[in-house]
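Quick check before the chapter quiz. The format below is the same one you will see on the exam, so make sure you can read both the input and the output lines.
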Amino acid sequence: MVLCVIFCGIGVFLLIANLVNERKGKSSGIPLFGGLFMALGLLMSPMKWLAIPGLFFDYLTWALFYTFVIDRRRFKKEAAKFGEEYEKQSFVPGQHDSEKNLTVRIKEREEELIWPFMTSKVYSLQVPRIYFSICEAEDGHRFLLLDIYMKNSRILLMPFDGNVISFDVMESETENYHIELLVGKQNGISDHKK
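Here is the expected output.
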């Protein structure tokens, strides 16, 4: 019973520390460990069934559920929406270029993401929530397909013949993000042939 109290105490401490750090906007501390310690402590108690709700006190358990179930379903829906647009616009099927990367810069978050470049592939960002794809037409011109995730949103089609394109996304009345997409070689910007 003493171990039960110790483990539950550590779990409660970690849960509170995570919540305080999350409220302050700092790193979330050690996510999931508070829930795991609570579950282990409650498994040592006479009422072992409380271990399951103890695990769900940690917000990361809910975040994992959201990521693996709800967000995945949303992405599949968006990918189907983009697929319809590919057919409608008669874009060339996706091609992977191992020499190029897609670099995404989000100025307000001072963040830079680097992904392998592939045409007609749906990419997604969580903050701000957008889905986009860079497609190539049969005549060699590139286009950016952009869906800023909102209810009843539609896909915007923007010319992207250069190597850099930038746009602003208004997430809310107070949050505006400036996003820059660069298609380039690993050590510099590549040449796009028309």
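If your answer matched, good. The first strand starts at residue 96 and ends at 106.
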